[in-house]
């Protein structure tokens, strides 16, 4: 089963993936996490300051990381190319480095190809307070705008997705049941 997590920043995607790594440590499980932080650590701006070079690196790093997807029973990515696409679309409305429409169209085309590799998207709506960590933007309206854009893209493109809600423990229980009922013997 190939699962894509998606949602705005600080919605619990990586937290849940880290719990899944513990639960399924003995399974044939591969994952992708923290692609965005890797890009930022190499000096490329993301979030409100992202530029075309940032997005090129994001796309390249994410696709390279996803190569392992076909060689395992369970694969989870805590973001996909849907996420930078949503950020780029929201950023178009900000006074910041301009991303050309043709580039955003290309990002959407690449995401539409990538999404075919996943069996299911898990959408993380905003439920928890924003925690500033020196990397994530502090602007709550920006986070809401990203969330709205992700939800619109999922619906507009008829993506097979489930919305996950509840406490971290409830989310973990839900994901464990979902995975076990779909790929692992009971």
Structural notes for this entry:
- This protein has 7 helices and 5 strands; from the N terminus they run βαβααβααβαβα.
- The model has no long low-confidence stretch (mean pLDDT 93).
- It has a 5-stranded parallel β-sheet with strand order 2-3-1-4-5.
- The protein is an alpha/beta fold and 186 residues long.
- Helix 6 links the parallel strand 4 and strand 5.
Please name the defining characteristics of this protein.
alpha/beta, 5 strands, five-stranded parallel β-sheet, 7 helices, 186 residues, 12% strand
Span from first to last CA? Answer: 16 Å
* Secondary-structure content class: alpha/beta
Strand order of the largest sheet: 2-3-1-4-5
Largest sheet: 5 strands, parallel
Unreliable segments (pLDDT under 50, ≥5 consecutive)?
Answer: none
Q: What is the tally of beta strands?
A: 5
Q: How do the SSEs run, as a string of H and E?
A: EHEHHEHHEHEH
Helix content: 40-55%
Summarize model confidence as the mean pLDDT: 93
